[in-house]
Specification:
Layout lengths: L2 E6 L15 H4 L3 H9 L1 E6 L4 H10 L7 H9 L7 E12 L2 E4 L5 H14 L9 E4 L5 E6 L13 E2 L2 H4 L3 H11 L3 E9 H8 L8 E5 L2 H9 L3 E4 L3 H11 L4 E6 L1 H6 L4 H17 L1 H4 L3 E5 L3 E2 L6 E2 L2 E7 L18 E2 L1 H10 L1
Parallel strand pairs: 1-11, 1-12, 2-16, 9-10, 9-11
Antiparallel strand pairs: 2-15, 3-4, 3-6, 3-8, 4-7, 5-6, 12-15, 13-14
């Protein structure tokens, strides 16, 4: 029996009054997801602040703290060898040193931001910058050096000073001026050498094909030496997962549930969950031949846009789809499984 593991990034949420004090995940109509919970095992596991730390512990059984910039550099195949530092880059608006991460970027603004990166890249030329932008105006930058700046991390609001940005100050100012107010701020910096040293400690890696549009999930896969497949979005990801199952087990990461949480619109988050479920139903016949697991890596409030520290739900069904259970897939109770043991529980269910 093949295994399909689906990670709904940031799909857990808080209870919201317009949904009769239910979460978007609980209030959504999602026949496929709920059928996995009804016919299988449900419980909770340990949520993490970011997807890559959740995945590293899930897939290796141990917690590893590798900076986000380094993991995403792996995902985008940017140079991260000896003597280079990698940073994740996120759009933001800065007023009086107050940072508001900018998730509602329009297509035009994203285009202006990419042009601003090209225009101002020379301000980093003495550090041999390699920068690549991807969806939502986000990007990854690697530079020569060994100094790692301790900078604010999204999605929560933060404060920043000119001194904090160090050698990135002129670049950040130039981008902000070129776009009329949208800055591109680095965070999650780290040395590639640290990741290489960690990789030597990891001996056992599951044979899964990682499917995602996110450099974070793809970066974990590449870092661990797993097969990876980049897709433009969840619809193509679900289709590709169904195809991959003909030859290998699949790990499908759906990032859109986290992205929409940061835009602070609970109704749209509910609609997206329902849309994802309808797409999963299109391939229900194929998926019912497999062991299917549903995971969530962390909570993400669709009211505040911030990540939530919480126990997160999981459900796994091992091929006995009879529809006789009563559980739905949402933020429920159940026995808590330590994250480092969860993969064994899924694969041995």
């Amino acid at each position: 029996m093949r295994n399909l593991i689906i990670l709904l990034d940031g799909a857990a949420d808080e209870r919201i009054s317009i949904f009769n004090n239910r979460t978007p995940l609980e209030a959504a109509r999602k026949d496929f997801m709920d059928s996995v919970a009804r016919d299988g095992k449900v419980g909770t596991t340990d949520g993490k602040d970011y997807t890559h730390t959740f995945l590293l512990e899930l897939l290796t059984g141990k917690p590893y703290d590798i900076p986000r910039g380094v993991i995403e550099a792996y995902g985008l195949e940017l140079p991260i060898g000896e003597g280079r530092v990698a940073y994740r880059m996120t759009p933001a608006k800065v007023h009086d040193h107050h940072v508001e991460w900018y998730y509602n970027i329009t297509c035009d603004e994203e285009m202006f931001l990419q042009r601003a990166i090209i225009k101002n890249r020379s301000k980093l030329s003495d550090m041999d910058p390699k920068i690549l932008a991807y969806h939502g105006g986000k990007g990854v930058l690697t530079i020569k050096g060994d100094e790692i700046l301790d900078l604010p991390k999204p999605p929560g609001p933060a404060r920043i000073s000119s001194e904090d940005l160090g050698p990135f100050l002129n670049f950040a100012k130039g981008v902000r001026e070129s776009t009329g107010g949208i800055a591109l701020l680095p965070w999650g910096g780290g040395l590639g050498k640290v990741a290489v040293d960690v990789r030597r400690q990891i001996s056992k890696v599951p044979d899964l094909t990682v499917i995602s549009k996110s450099p974070s999930a793809l970066g974990v896969g590449k870092f661990l030496g797993m097969e990876t497949m980049r897709v433009p979005g969840f619809k193509e990801g679900i289709k590709v997962a169904a195809q991959v199952l003909d030859r290998n087990d699949a790990f499908l990461h759906i990032e859109e549930t986290d992205d929409i949480s940061h835009k602070c619109n609970p109704k749209n988050k509910l609609k997206l969950i329902e849309e994802i479920d309808r797409e999963l139903l299109r391939y229900e016949k194929r998926f019912r031949e497999c062991r299917v697991a549903l995971l969530i890596d962390h909570g993400a409030s669709s009211l505040t846009g911030e990540h939530m520290c919480m126990k997160v739900p999981y459900a796994v069904c091992g091929g006995q789809w009879k529809g006789k259970g009563t559980n739905g897939f949402h933020e429920n109770g159940g026995e808590n499984a330590p994250l480092g043991t969860l993969l064994d529980i899924i694969l041995e269910d």
